[in-house]
């Protein structure tokens, strides 16, 4: 049986609504120049849709960098103006992020919508990264565990064991996103334990392949301690993923 230590860390860069095609090209060139020949972590970038084809071409057969999307629609095609389906993403992407708090808070995505998206990603043969996390107010009210249980159960319960094993969970406390105030390694570990319990619940037995990431103000300075917190298998990085040298330093921290 695989032990938790055998989960290779995943460091993912969520570029959000940044980087046009030319900037994306420059950033990927810098990343490929800055990553070691064999990074200890799996490294993933999540560019905007418009840069996916370019980034895919630049990565080519280089296995050090993988590609994912930040969002998708749950239907494969149809009259959904402005939306992008998993069928459209599948030629370029190995992963799709679903349920980011910005999607939940700014675009009204409910747990139910997030689940439909997660199902669509799995159906298309890609790997979903299920993002979840509590607000500052929920945290102050002592509701963190209840919120994480609700969001994680909504995302995972009812999936087959094989489907659960293809999921990654990203714990992103909303109060830590873009604020410069990361959770402590102890907070991240505590959340990871709650989320791991849902993975076990959903799959009926331990699923050692499911990685649990931490996200929220991860920087080169904070990465090593957060990435080595017990139960944390990687990071989902926002702002710092737009700076190649810093992102490479975060990747290095995952292996140190
Ligand atoms: P920051 O790293 O900028 O806080 O963003 C985190 C995030 O939302 C990644 O998905």
Q: What does it look like?
A:
Helices cover 42% and strands 14% of the residues. Helix 10 runs parallel beside helix 11 (244-255). An eight-stranded parallel barrel has the order 1-2-3-4-5-6-7-8, surrounded by six helices. It has helices at residues 21-34, 52-59, 86-89, 101-106, 111-123, 136-140, 144-156, 161-165, 185-203, 220-227, 244-255; strands at 10-14, 42-46, 66-69, 95-98, 127-132, 168-171, 211-215, 234-237. It has a domain at 70-243: Aldolase class I (TIM Barrel, Alpha-Beta Barrel). The chain is globular, with a radius of gyration of 17 Å. It is α/β, with parallel strands linked by helices. 1,3-dihydroxyacetonephosphate is lined by residues 14, 100, 172, 177-178, 215-218, 236-240.
């Amino acid at each position: 049986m695989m032990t938790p230590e055998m989960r290779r860390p995943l460091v993912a860069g969520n570029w959000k609504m940044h980087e046009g095609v030319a900037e994306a090209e420059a950033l990927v060139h810098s990343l490929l120049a800055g990553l070691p020949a064999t990074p200890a972590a799996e490294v993933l970038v999540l560019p905007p849709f418009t840069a996916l084809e370019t980034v895919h071409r630049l990565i080519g057969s280089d296995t050090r960098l993988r590609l994912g999307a930040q969002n998708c629609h749950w239907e494969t095609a149809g009259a959904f103006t402005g939306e992008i389906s998993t069928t459209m993403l599948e030629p370029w992407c190995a992963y799709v992020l679903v349920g980011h708090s910005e999607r939940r808070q700014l675009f009204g995505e409910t747990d139910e919508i997030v689940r439909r998206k997660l199902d669509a990603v799995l159906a298309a043969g890609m790997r979903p990264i299920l993002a979840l996390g509590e607000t500052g107010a929920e945290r102050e009210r002592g509701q963190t565990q209840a919120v994480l249980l609700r969001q994680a159960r909504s995302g995972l319960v009812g999936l087959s064991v094989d489907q659960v094993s293809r999921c990654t969970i990203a714990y992103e406390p909303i109060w830590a996103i873009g604020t410069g105030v990361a959770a402590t390694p102890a907070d991240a570990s505590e959340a990871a334990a709650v989320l791991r319990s849902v993975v076990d619940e959903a799959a009926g037995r331990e699923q050692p392949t499911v990685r649990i990431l931490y996200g929220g103000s991860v920087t080169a300075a904070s990465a090593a301690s957060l990435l080595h917190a017990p139960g944390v298998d990687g990071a989902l990085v926002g702002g710092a993923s737009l700076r190649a040298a810093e992102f490479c330093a975060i990747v290095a921290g995952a292996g140190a």
